[in-house]
Every structure is written in structure tokens, then in C-alpha cells.
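Thread: S-adenosylmethionine complex, take 2
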Amino acid sequence: MTGRRPAAIDTVRFDEVEAFPPLADIEHGQLFALSLSTSTTGFTHGLHRFAAKFVPQVPAWALDTFGSRTSVVLDPFLGSGTTLVEAVLRGGTSIGVDVDPLARFIARAKVTAVDHERITALAGELSARWRAPSATLERPMPDVARFGHWFGPAQWGWVQSLRDTILALDCSDDERAFLLVVFSSTLRWVSNADDQSQKTYVSGTLAKTAPAVPATFDRFLRRAVDGLADLNRKRHSESVAVIPDDADATRLGLGPETVDLAVTSPPYLDSVDYPYNMMLEYFWLGPLLGVPDRKSFNALRRRPIGAKNPLDRFGLPPSLAGSVTLDAMPPARRAAAATYFTLMEHHFSEAARVLRPGARYAFVVGNSQTLVDMVPLHDALIGLAAAAGLTLERAFGYRIRRHYMKFPRNGRGGIILIDWVLVFRKGPPAGTPGALPRHWVTLAPGAVAH
Ligand SMILES: C[S@@+](CC[C@H](N)C(=O)[O-])C[C@H]1O[C@@H](n2cnc3c(N)ncnc32)[C@H](O)[C@@H]1O
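Output below.
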């Protein structure tokens, strides 16, 4: 298999919907466009940015289609917790696993039943106490060189005094964690770093005037409390969300056949560098999250599946030999790609172990990297899942909206606009759903993603 030629965007038909229809009404390979009026930031979904978040409509659809009020639901690549937020609205037990401590911290803040009125009261106390920037600037992560590159002196001083004031508040750990996540959510905005892209960098061409910290924090906090209040009102009374600290998608720490449904968007080949995208947040919060210095931060970057320089290296799984060749890839990336596929193979066998017979796994594969153009990622993942006993039952695509990509890409970067929802079922094939259509849509030169 080789790469595919991009199709022009207007040759592909998208069915515009408010929400994905029931499974029985979805044709294999059908493409949807979620209407732009559909909110993706309700409840606590908008609490913190996170690279490659999926839209809440995906886990919502999976939970409504395959879950129940008493289901045990797993997201093995939890990220910022979108699945768990949707799960606590519906009841049952939801379990989220992620190797990234900041992701777990954000996800916990999004689902923990903190009293929003208490947060409002604490916000009042905060604003009474947080009156001035710190007089002496201290690097929050001691061995980060050139911290002033990221934060101007005024912003740095205000951010530092805000963190110290939150840490000194008389409140519960959960309340403090919520405030720290709101604090974290403002950091990219008030820094010198570009806030239109995921990558943490200070643009040499797009000058940025960082906004004032107090007004920004105040605005973000008010929005966060509104979202939390809304979630608290609609939270199912019998819902439990669990986010273990020591699990991994290849070692879930769950018993065999204990999970009714899994929903996830996994890391991709040549993936986003999640910790690097959250570097500023790690500088400030890392010391509170077991990542005290650059060395431990750099080690963390090697842990996720899809890391460019993974801790352990593996060859390509034998089951993919013949269908996947990595020759088209730059040699420096081949070892990382082979490792990615092996770790995903380990993940699928672990997922198959914990899922009950007949349980579904809704698995979102999107592509936004150029390298993917050279490797048939969906086909490879579908093959690996099948080898583990997870059979593809149905697949549909939807056009992605990424609000932070509101700038022309000039046709560069191979930004792909379709995410696929692959529905696997644990068990032998019950008929073949047929090959996935090969829509391969890139942005036209000058086009704007939305
Ligand atoms: C695409 S993101 C998930 C985004 C999530 N659906 C959301 O809406 O925020 C993939 C996540 O997988 C995590 N990850 C990578 N390798 C992992 C592993 N071995 N075990 C668990 N999580 C892992 C990354 O840290 C990242 O947070």
C-alpha cells in the first residue's frame, strides 16, 4: 500500500447533522459534518485546551449507542477527559488512563464534583488577596533557561503571585486543583508564545502583545465556574469517574472482561508531542505533578505512544509486514513508527483482554500529519485490532473543526480534515463491513479550517 492523492474538498459529500445518528442509520463509510452551531465547549469541555481533543459528540454518540446507566466505560488514551465528562452526565463507572500527568490533572478537574459555589467564594477570596505581582521573579522550574523568553516581566510577576495565592488558599485539594487548572488554562494566553498553534514557540513574525493576567484569569475563571455549575446540575447521581496514576494503555491494571465499552482517540503515528505542547503549563505546574525539572520533563516526552524518540524501541509487528512499509518515511522516523505500531498492537491485545465478549470499542483515527500520507494508518490499525480479536463492525467519518487553526495553511502541512470513528466489536467477524472509502481531503491552498 502506498500513499493516496489528496481529493479536492468539494468532491466529497458531507451530511450535515447536529449529532451523529443511531448506528442502524449510518452507512459504512458515510461522512458527516457536525453543524457549526453544535457546541463543543459546554460543561467543562472548554476548561483547558489540549492537543487533538476530540469533539464531545463522538463519546456522546458511543455512550448513547452502546452504553447504559450502569456501564463500565474505559478511555485508555484519556487526554483531557472528554469521554469522562460525557460519561458522568450519563451514569455508570468511567475509567480514564493516560501516561501524561498534566492530562490526568486536567481531566480530574473536569469531572470532580467540586461545589461551584465554593469556587465562586474562593474566587472572591483570591481577588481580595491577589493584588500585586511578585516583587522577586523566580523560575517556577529551576533549570529552565531563558524563562523571560516565555513570559514578560509583568506577566511573570502576576502569574507567580497568582500561583502562590492559590497555593496559600484555605480550601480542599479538589478545589485547589480546579483553580490550578484554570490558572494553567490562562498560561499560554498571557505568555509570549503563539496561541494559535499547538506547538509552544514564540513567533518571530507574528508579534504578540500578551494580555494582562488579572483580567484574563478573571474571565477564564468565570467561564470555568459556569461550565462546572452546568455539569453539577446535569451530572448523573450514580456516576463515578476513576483516573488511576499508574496505568498505561498497554497495561491497564483492570481485570479480564470487566469493561462494557471503550471509547478513545489514540495518539497517531508521528504524533503530537503532548508534553511539549504543554511546556509552559509544565514549567508552572510540573513541580506539583511529579515533574520537577527539565530532565524529568524530557523523560516524560519519551513515554507516550507515538513519541518521536521513544524510551523503548521495537520493530514493526510481523502481522504488518507486507502491508506496511516504512520506506517512504525519513529514516530517522522509521524506528519511532515501528515502535508506534508495536505499542498499538500491545494496546489492542490489552483492550481485548479487559473488554467483555461482544463489547464495542469506538476508536477515532484522524490524520493530521504529513507522514500519515505515506502509511495507511487506518488499515494498519484495523489489522492490528483484528489480530487481537477486535473486529471492525462499522466506520464513519466526520469533518473536523479545529478552531485554533483559523489561519491559512497555504496548502502546507497536509492537514487532513476527516476523522474516522471505527467501531470494533470484541468477537469474531459477523460479516465484512467492506473496505473504507479512501477520502483523503486536504485543505486547498489558502483555505481556512474551521
Ligand atoms: C489524542 S490524545 C486524547 C485526547 C482526548 N480524546 C481528549 O479529548 O482530550 C491521546 C492521549 O494519549 C496519551 N497516551 C499516549 N501514550 C499513552 C499510553 N501508553 N497510555 C495511555 N495514554 C497514552 C497521550 O498522553 C494523550 O493524552
